[in-house]
């Protein structure tokens, strides 16, 4: 889960990130950036849509969304190792 917190100093951001993790039982803060971007690890069987909606309602949160990794495919549709 990626959460954007409103501006604050480093100690304030870390404290608020820990509060976010406390609001989601079993979650852990993975990373907090100086810009207020927080990465939370959610426990298995947690619905990220519900968590994003709940965290997004907090006044100090600008956004909350899934943290996903996408893999691109070449336009040809062939696997990259077969190109070239």
3D architecture notes:
By secondary structure, the protein is α+β, with helices and mostly antiparallel strands. The protein has a single domain (2-65), classed as Alpha-Beta Plaits (2-Layer Sandwich). Helices cover 27% and strands 23% of the residues. It contains 2 helices and 4 strands. It has helices at 10-23, 48-56, and strands spanning 2-5, 28-32, 37-41, 61-65. It has a 4-stranded antiparallel sheet with strand order 2-3-1-4, covered by helices on one side. A hairpin with a 4-residue loop joins strand 2 and strand 3 (37-41). The model has no long low-confidence stretch (mean pLDDT 86).
Helix-strand layout with pairing:
Elements: E1 2-5, H1 10-23, E2 28-32, E3 37-41, H2 48-56, E4 61-65
Antiparallel strand pairs: 1-3, 1-4, 2-3
A few lines on this structure:
This protein has helices at 10-23, 48-56, and strands at residues 2-5, 28-32, 37-41, 61-65.
CATH class: Alpha Beta
The helix count comes to 2
Instruction: Return the average pLDDT rounded to an integer.
Output: 86
Would you give the CATH topology?
Alpha-Beta Plaits
